[in-house]
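From the pipeline queue, job 12 of 40. The input is one protein chain; the requested action is below.

Action: predict structure.
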Amino acid sequence: MRVRSAVVRITAAVLAVGCITACADGAPTAVPGPSARDSARATAPGGAAGGAGTSAASVRANASCTAGKCTDNSRASGSENRPGTVGGRHPCSPSVSLDRYSDALDKTTFQGTFVGNLSALARDTDGSIAAVSDRSVLIGLNGRTHRPVRAAKITDEKGAVLDAEGLAVEPAGTYLVSSETEPSVRRYDRVGTLLGRLPVPDALQVAPAGRAQSNQTFEGLALRPGGGTLTAAMEGPLTGDGKDTAGRPLLRFQTWQRYGARPGPAPYRLGKQYAYPVDAGLGVSEIAALSDGRLLVLERGFTAGVGNTVRLYLADPRRAADVSGVAKLPGGKTVRAAHKKLLADLGACPSLGAPAHQPQTNPLLDNIEGMTITGRAPGGRLRLLLVSDDNESPKQITRLYELTVRPGGH
């Protein structure tokens, strides 16, 4: 009993410290209840389940604070306090492990801004994590605790909101944001002022201007370390494009090359375009660039009554053919698509006791849309941060996932 009492006292002290940390200026405030508006996107491809809760590994980031009072919302379960590693306690595959998850941001606000609808993540130049909401808001998260620290609304040239889905941070700290509406890629400064717009090929425009399908355009955006090459991933295929010999739909990834160091309105020129074979029934929700030119690619789908499918691939476009001049894919046997390798099906990750508000084969899963590389772990492994888009729906959740990935190869 003495040992038990001591543990209780120590645990209470730790939670108190976490509460003090979470209640500092700028901490998120819990919304009184979920939004009554359940977005129609929740039942479309990419919809998801949700729930409230978090692994104990995120104790210090999981206190909800209102009027200076904190309530710890973390859930403890023994070894879940320790980060997993590849081949360790929380493996998803030989290449990927789940370190922890957190629901601390779910249904919270920051300085009057709803912290949700998050569609993309990017590591910022100041060590924080930049996030973008598809309701046209740039949000900054503390790089360690992942609590909101800033928010700025962004618009197009006419002051209209964007369906913002992709985000990249330039070396100078400016932001590149893709929108599915046209589609488009625009540049913004640190406070959300529009700086310019990048050129987009006519064929990638939404019909009738081009051959893209509505809500199936620039979903992923990634800037190669160093800032020289920008890549945007189409979520779905163009009308008229076909499949590869394995029956996988072929999507188009568009690149731009940065020229010069001047902070002009759009210092990028159109570059190579290549084909990417997506798994049948899935679409690309996010990409992240490695320094050697390869990409991490998130493929995602949703089936009502079953739940989400989320797979992480390593794609190598370095030997892929330029298909910018190919009217209809696959374009013949000589047109080589990007090669990809499955790193993990995230449905195979341990759930760590995560809840879900819709049917899911693994309650850990949700509508995962954002991904960024946050650093490196020993042995050449990468640390990833993923986020799900809750669409302000009570059936979905804003959930952060921390993964360790061994991509392999060069």
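Job complete. The two ends are 55 Å apart (CA to CA).
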